[in-house]
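Dear Dr. L.,

I hope this message finds you well. Following up on our conversation about the binding site, I have prepared a predicted three-dimensional model of the protein together with zinc ion. For your records, I am including the exact sequence and ligand specification that went into the calculation, followed by the structure tokens. Please feel free to forward this to your student if that is useful.
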Amino acid sequence: MKSFRIETYGGPLREFDTNTPKPTGTEVLLKVRAAGVCHTDLHIWDGGYDMGGGKMLKMADRGQTLPHTMGHETVGEVVSFGPECKEVKAGDVRLIYPWIGCGKCAVCRADTEQLCPNPRYLGVFSHGGYADHIVVPHPRYLIDIGSMTAEQAAPYACSGLTAFSALKKIGKERLAEPILIIGAGGLGLMCLSLLKAMGAKGAVVADLDSAKREAAMKAGALATVDPASPDAASQISKAIGGPLWAVVDFVGAPASWTLALGTLSKGGYYVVVGLYGGEMMLSLPAIPLRALSVFGSFVGSRPELIELIDLAKSGKIPSIPITKRPLSEVNDALIDLKKGKQVGRAVLVP
Ligand SMILES: [Zn+2]
Ligand SMILES: [Zn+2]
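The resulting structure of the complex is given below.
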């Protein structure tokens, strides 16, 4: 099988030719049909996350070994499976839930495997979808995509799920009023699509890039704001037209934190999703005095992904712009994403 792997952090991904694995036990071997390129891959490629103050959370310290195949937004077609696997048949096209845990601990048993302390995430700690084949440990991680195309379905495994889980934390009541979305990359656009499908009021979107603000308007934003303009906060409150109950931050930088805290109402929810990095000095009394709730949201659970795919299958979610590229262009796709040139989602096809 063919795969593109990180050999050294930050270096170009190299093509590997290895034996195609033979699934055993409950394992399933799939032929990759589509693999989404995610912003998280840039952090993995770099070897970790900037935690602020010069500290780095290293992938190597978290148990990642090189060479490593990234790719956690994968749709594949079942090729073969181990003898203990009954639920699938060859030819089934499935979206893969990649946020796999140990399968034994309390959070895994509660079906919140994405929070397992011993994760086996595909494309992060196990080999992922930047390849022509992928092995999944159990058919429970395979989700039927109905008549959706592989390219459409792939981004739901991370960008879609992340946006969906963040919105679920805000809750229906708060979503009845406009919210603020910070960042109009793939996640921000996906969030706008989901708001419509969930019957929510909608969102004002802040992004530094005018092309991305334009894409957000096309995706149904109520208004857009350049967060670098000196009166950004007042532009936002004008566009919201009332108290701001919730902010979803897909950037996660000191500047986006400042913008969120400067615009949220008393009792507001601030959901941080983005991993841009950095650190903040924070006036602690502001949190209780303004009764603010700060949530960290990390991808989402398997049941949430199933719920999301059901919503997508109902045709209620308008599709986000997708750019199809051959798998062999993986390095260029990553560089384009790093340079901020990618509008919507790039999906690699082997
Ligand atoms: Zn991702
Ligand atoms: Zn676990």
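In brief: Residues 159-170 form the longest helix (12 residues).

With kind regards,
A. P.
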